[in-house]
Amino acid sequence: MAPAAPPVAAPLPLPAAALRLGAALALALLLPLPAAAAQEEAAGACHQYTNRSCEECLKNVTCLWCVSSQKCMEYPVRRILPPTDLCELRSARWGVCWVNFEALIIAMSVVGGMILIMLGVCCCCCCRKKSKKPDKDDERAAREREKRRVRQEERRAEMKSRHDEIRRKYGLFKEENPYAKFEN
User: Fold this and answer.
1) 65 forms bridges with which residues in the sheet?
2) Residue 167 C-alpha from the chain's centroid
3) pLDDT band at 87 (very low <50, low <70, confident <90, very high)
4) Cα–Cα dist 104/109, whole Å
5) Distance between CA atoms of 82 and 66, rounded to whole angstroms?
6) 3-state DSSP assignment of residue 64
7) What pTM value is reported for the model?
């Protein structure tokens, strides 16, 4: 007999899927994965706080408190987010009792989006500012180039006039080519 395929979960509605994806990304960045030995040790320690208080349960960072069922359980680190059959996102607490996963996901998404928008605006402003107005160094270099070009033209004209005077003095001044074609 062939082994049975694992059950396929029904696709989540778009907002729930987006929430889960955002939460997964947020927790992947914030949650360091503990060692396997510490997880096994914490599993037994977490269940002893069931039907007590959220604060007692969350003293251990590997524990997850479910408000709806009043259960303290091991945080499912391999799944990043607790599955809905374990505890709903709005009822799950981890780290502190006053923040649920849904609010954490929304807050992290908003903050992340604002940071991305601010970076985009800053990049656009810097690029636009740089392209519209040349730097002072560029302007100074252009003025110096223009001054050098003008001085060189003046020197060239002065040297040409000197050479022409010397050619006239010694009779070496170039006249038009006497053998050029005559045009009528």
Assistant:
1) 72, 93
2) 71
3) confident
4) 8
5) 10
6) strand
7) 0.44
